[in-house]
Write a structure and sequence with these properties.
The chain is of the alpha+beta class and about 270 residues long. The chain folds into 2 domains: about 5-155, no CATH class; about 160-240, Alpha-Beta Plaits (2-Layer Sandwich). The protein has helices at about 5-30, 60-65, 130-140, 140-155, 180-190, 215-225, 240, and strands at about 35-40, 80-85, 90-95, 100-105, 125, 165-170, 175, 195, 205, 230-235. A 5-stranded antiparallel sheet has the order 1-2-3-4-5, covered by helices on one side. The longest helix is centred in the N-terminal third of the chain and has 27 residues, at about 5-30. It is globular and about 100 Å long. It starts with 5 loop residues before the first helix and ends in a 25-residue tail after the last helix. The relative contact order is 0.12.
Length: about 270
């Protein structure tokens, strides 16, 4: 038997994990509705930046599967993401030690980067049959996800709903901080030029692209302004602007009453 390098064995095991996941999600997405799209991300070292955007916290089954079973299981060598054009994303991995089931949970909606007190939608386990899984997701997950998404958007960034910041990554790829579901839909449904990055919650331009970065930015800005959104163009990363501390407010001037003149006493 020929010797297999670590890299070859890692690639083999990653491919073995991604295959069933891709087959399952490609059948699942259209059964939820024609608006959902699926993508499989190979994560050969069992880690993904999207793990930090899991809405479910420490007490959930998906959190436990992601953060407490990295050592001896291949189920984390691939993750799938189902994206809805309103900014919702489902996170899917194979359930540990149960190859006939998958875990489906929710990521923070597009444009949300902070947790608040809104009750999070709990992940669920679904069978590997896409039809049965879609029925379970529509009944047990999506209604709670949509309600929670509306609440967290209102409580964290209510005043920024009509604002879109378009900047660029360190590699020069156009990226947009978009909160409004209407604005997300406008970007994601335009010739498949943009996608919702599950690792950041930002809309990013698909690369490679036949369009130049400047053309993509100007086209997106014109489209969003036509929908009455305020568009801010910058060469910085949108998250750098979002997390930058606000300058201290100037002190409010205190009105000093004019001095009063005393009247001479009457005699």
């Amino acid at each position: 038997m020929p010797n297999i390098t670590f890299e070859q064995e890692t690639a083999r095991r990653t491919t073995a994990a991604a295959g069933p996941l891709g087959e399952f999600t490609s059948g699942l997405a259209p059964r939820l509705s024609s608006a959902w799209t699926s993508r499989v991300h190979s994560t050969p070292y069992r880690w993904s930046q999207a793990d930090y955007r899991l809405w479910e916290r420490e007490d959930g089954a998906l959190w436990q599967a992601v953060y407490h079973s990295r050592q001896d299981s291949d189920h984390l060598r691939a993750r799938a993401f189902l994206t809805h054009p309103t900014g919702l994303q489902l996170y899917i991995v194979q359930r540990p030690y149960r190859p006939s089931e998958f875990l489906v949970g929710a990521l923070l909606p597009a444009g949300i980067f902070e947790y608040d007190t809104t009750p999070h939608p709990s992940a669920i386990a679904v069978p590997a049959d896409p039809a049965r899984a879609a029925a379970a997701i529509r009944r047990r997950l999506l209604p709670y996800y949509r309600t929670a998404a509306m609440r967290v958007s209102r409580s964290t960034r209510f005043r920024q709903t009509q604002k879109v910041v378009i900047g660029q990554s360190a590699e020069g790829i156009p990226i947009a901080d978009v909160l409004s579901p209407r604005a997300v839909r406008a970007l994601l449904h335009e010739d498949e030029r943009w996608y919702l990055d599950p690792g950041t919650g930002l809309c990013a331009a698909i690369t490679p692209s036949p369009h130049s970065p400047d053309d993509l930015v100007q086209d997106a800005a014109a489209r969003l302004r036509g929908l009455a959104f305020e568009v801010v163009l910058t060469t910085e990363h949108p998250l750098d602007l979002y997390f930058r501390p606000s300058p201290p407010a100037a002190p409010t001037p205190v009105a000093v009453p004019p001095p009063t003149t005393s009247r001479p006493a009457r005699r």
